[in-house]
Amino acid sequence: MQIYKVFDSKSEIIFSPKKSITNSLNINHLSEVSVFNKNSKFHFNHLTSDPLKSIQNWYSDYSFIEASGGVVKMNSKYLWIYRNGIWDLPKGKLEKLEDFETAAVREVQEECGLDSFLKIEKLIYVSFHTYTENLKKIIKRTNWYEMTYSGSDNVSPQIEEGIERVEWLSLDESIEKSNTSFKSIKEVWKSLHV
In 3D, which of 132, 31, 193, 24 has the Cα closest to residue 15? Predict the structure, then answer.
């Protein structure tokens, strides 16, 4: 059963064939979100037999962007980037005619300065989040992969992408960083370590 969560401003909307969180409200249209937000309600469910199609319909006036990234492990350490004042996982937009897996490997290598010893193990999570850029509403879908790396532990941040630091962190440090990162990153991390 496919379940997708959209991080829409301060709200979380789960698109699923059945209710998955007991303390959330069922909604039938995106316009209901802002009404409930005024009453401090931020967790919602939309029941649908086709979650992905429902997301596309609800956000039809948004520009869709596709991206890919990874949770990279080398021995007992995990790869993190520091950008715009927050710890994050490496990811980036798909290039024209590029598939999600190819983009994930390319983006992680470019953002972190890794060589070719990077391997995808499996898809672990698909995240959606909305934002506005130059008055344009955007919804970004990111496919997240569990990856392993067996090359040199030397890393270098892609400065032109605003990445200030790249570090290999322990499991405990990674859990701490995921808890202070974006909500979508916390979900990605949780999906890997459930």
Answer: 24
pLDDT 10s digits, 94-114: 999 999 999 999 999 999 999
Predicted pLDDT at 97:
95
Whole-prediction pTM value?
A: 0.90
What is d(CA 132, CA 135) in angstroms, rounded to the nearest whole number? Answer: 6
Provide the residue count of the chain.
194
Query: Which has the closest alpha carbon to 65: 129, 3, 141, 136?
Result: 141
Residue 20, pLDDT score = 66
- Is 144:67 a contact under the CB 8 Å cutoff? no
Neighbours of 22 (CB within 10 A): 6
Examine the domain organization and report whether 78 and 170 are in the same domain. Answer: yes
> What domain range is 29 assigned to?
4-58
Q: How far is CA 29 from CA 19, 52, 62, 65, 85, in A?
A: 16, 15, 15, 22, 34
Q: Number of C-alpha atoms within 13 angstroms, CB side, residue 75?
A: 7
CATH number of 175's domain: 3.90.79.10
Per 3-state DSSP, the chain is made up of helix, strand and coil in percentages (nearest 5) of 25, 40, 30
The four Cα atoms 81, 142, 101, 78 give a dihedral, to 10 degrees, of 30
Whether residue 128 sits in one domain with residue 42: no
